[in-house]
């Protein structure tokens, strides 16, 4: 169901909800970009005459170069998004690199994941971050003005558009937009959703300009995180760094006479879509009685891939009965390959997997199969369904959607087992998973053994509960919970989810 709200929505995210590519003749074409956020939010933008502000993924020829309409055979969720509903942010490469690779991925990503030793603090890249946020804010204000002009022409002077800013790449934009609105007398409601963890005060304070970041986010009326722990960390930082008055029971805080709501809004997946893919995807080929332990992640140091592979090696050492019976299948999606840390991680994985395969392989069996690349959603769903165990063991993760997608694809006639880190946001609610500390390699190995040996009845009981919860708390529920928190939806549209 597409949520109909009374106000147009302006979504602001680093990337547009589709990818732009040039064909051989240099003409721009739209390509589908998969992901639950796009699937859930694009229909709301389309149905409510909204706008999406973002970077198109390529260098445009000029600021005024036209965005193409969707092609006639485009069946993706963004096909109904007209080019006039897209506000394209163009930034020169010299500025974009220090903003994106430098500050977003080199500073905020490790800092927010509580890995400060990996974070680089640089006045230069942070300055680029400020400037790029300013460009996004200007584009957002342009979109807002267009929106208000239409509303005013139709006599809807009482309707305030909703601006929804996404993620750690844009933490300063809200305050910049608010300032412009105050100066120019523009009306809007503003919200921010943070997709990754928010760290504790003693980590956040390491960032030399932490006060600007906190104030930047507080330009909003509603600030959303995946789980309560991140909300509490954020409230704590605002109280201690900015001296805000904070209500820790109702998650409210005050700044300059304004009240800001902080709320946990755990994201879900397009559950029915994955469940259908799980039913229809062709079976994967594997030897009879062979079991698969599956890992699916972007190749990122927060995802705990190295620990996981080492734990699998211990499993083979301690439980040799699994040799030739179990294969560890890891899909690692290339990510941020311009950043040195990510190149080093790739080398480390290549060497580690090469060593373990060299040590344990038999003529007809290798312990680890490793894909460094993307696979189609259909293949991914088949692997989710046909694996005995999914191992989702990030060292830290905002939520983690792979855990949820695995659950949605399960066939209850032979359900798999989910192993999950407590340091993922998902670890807090998916309690029927086998919860395992990714730093404790012996325990990970033992729990792999337990998962592989788990009796059918226990697998079924755990999986039934997991499926029920994820189906109720899907991505559409997430969007309507958000809209309700912004006062955009009546409560009865939002009454059916449980833990
Ligand atoms: P990510 O860090 O990207 O997201 P995650 O939540 O696991 O992490 O999402 C990864 C997505 O990529 C999944 O939807 C998955 O299906 C897809 N994917 C993975 N491997 C793939 C492959 N080989 N081929 C095709 N698709 C693949 C950030 C935060 C998370 C948070 C999300 C949403 O870091 O913590 O859950 O945003 O808020």
Automatic annotation (TrEMBL):
<comment type="similarity">
    <text>In the C-terminal section; belongs to the trehalose phosphatase family.</text>
</comment>
<dbReference type="GO" id="GO:0003825">
    <property type="term" value="F:alpha,alpha-trehalose-phosphate synthase (UDP-forming) activity"/>
</dbReference>
<protein>
    <recommendedName>
        <fullName>Trehalose-6-phosphate synthase</fullName>
    </recommendedName>
</protein>
<dbReference type="GO" id="GO:0005992">
    <property type="term" value="P:trehalose biosynthetic process"/>
</dbReference>
<dbReference type="GO" id="GO:0005829">
    <property type="term" value="C:cytosol"/>
</dbReference>
<dbReference type="GO" id="GO:0004805">
    <property type="term" value="F:trehalose-phosphatase activity"/>
</dbReference>
